[in-house]
Fold:
Amino acid sequence: MNSSLQKTWKIGLSILFGVIVLLFWGIVYPAHVSYQEQFQLFLFGSDYWWERVAVPGGLADYVAEYLTQFYYYPWAGACILAFLFVLLQRLVWKLAKEQGASGVYYPLSFLPVLVLWYFMVDENAMLSFAVALLLTLFAAGAYTDLKDRWERTIYILIALPLLYWTAGAVHFIFMGWVMIREFRNSLVNKNLFGGVGMLLGVGLLGAAGPLLASMWMQYPIYRLMGGIGYYRFPAAIPFVEIGLAALLVVLPFVMAALPEVRKKALWCGALQVLVVVVGGYYFVAAGCDMDKEEAMDYDRLVRNGQWQRIIEKAEKKSPTSPFGVTCLNLALGMTGQLGDRMFEFYQNGTEGLLPAFQRDFTSPLPTSEAYYHLGMINTAQRFTFEAMEAIPNFRKSGRCYKRLAETNLINGQYEVAARYLRALRKTLFYKDWAENAMTYLYNEDKINAHKEWGRLRQLRYTEDFLFSEREMDIMLGLLYQHNHRNRMAFEYMLAYVMQQRDLERFMKYYPLGKDAGYNHIPRSYQEALVYVWTQTHKSFQGMPWSISQQVTKDVTDFARIYTSQQNARPMLQARYGNTYWYYLLFKK
Structure:
């Protein structure tokens, strides 16, 4: 195989790999990209810079957060990840080639990137780790260009401590790689004592960084040794990080040790490509969690107010987790379809309407969105603030800052709102919004005229009372009684008691809807009303509600199957699984 052909197929393979990575993050896993952006708040300013670089690995953290802010647009994030993955692969090959690896083994240089890919599909894996790895490999690549032993020694003395402070604990990769390389060179030159001395010297220098840092940094030694910002949960050091570090140390030397293939080199390369592709596919797929991706996608659509897309997504596959069902029910409520279509989709009780607060940083967010759009501004503010404060790595959130600014503007807490807005003005993608929002401060007329904020001011509670999540139907009733134009509050109130199977309270609350402006009785309400009627009447004559003929026909057929079939559930599920009757009698 001539040199130009070798170079072409290698570059082509890297480009193809980059395209695959791009399509994966842009089409298969875009919600994970958006998820990363919303749990950080990158600020342009010296204070933020010094706060980040003041800890080991801080520069990698700073660069990673700078890049992560572009995840605001998922395709931009996909492009960044594709570029970093390909760059990492090329650096691995550079190190292997420098050690004398044959070009036929080029496909093996993708192995560390596949392991990194497996790590990055974890929603708590931080881009800081990938950036730190690149800094380390750049340092190793520069080291290979130095031919003089004294130049290399001086380089190690400067680069290793500097690498620890800029990239963090991945400096152990550089340390291990240098130790193996120098010891091997010493053996080749028959200088065993020099090799042992280099091993001890480089090893002590590498260990000195974390040990010295522990003397003034308020971090446990295991975190200084394992990396501070590589994973969202500070106490966790995933084994895949350690495995990838070890692979990066030894792989270039293993590739160099493999025998050169002169005959059938093309077949050998093709076989490696096949093994890497098939093995990589199943390996990365094993790390993916498509249920989480689905839930994150629902949350992303809620964040962007794409209500119709949420409903269209659910029509293809109904969500089953409380997280996804909460998003769906909010979309139905925002489009005025909750009363008609609620039971066309899977419902898991009141946990799919307004879930109880949980002390984590993800589940309160769609619930806070529901409270916000209902007009329960204070509760939405509490859920948003608590979610942000629960972020494990103690970062702030651009999404949460924006919502907290809005809730305080609506409540007239202008000083608090201004604090959030001033921070958002130092960002890239929230700056314009914050600049515009600043013009609403202390301007009551302008806020009241705002399409969303003005409406929510009219819907929100105006009197103080003790809020109780255990009596949510009463809370929703008070909200609706405050403003009868808040039809969504009425629909959530009825949905709440219907999903609790409390038809007594349903019959008590239903008449309140006379002021909600309906031009027809929503389908699920008809189903509940006709069910209540049939419990005490043998015919439909005299019903005080305008029940459609289709509903009376369906309930008659439902009752016939239910009473005549010994195992009626499968048949009823097939015919009437999307009705309130089926939910009432069969859903747990």
Notes: The mean pLDDT is 93. The two ends are 66 Å apart (CA to CA).
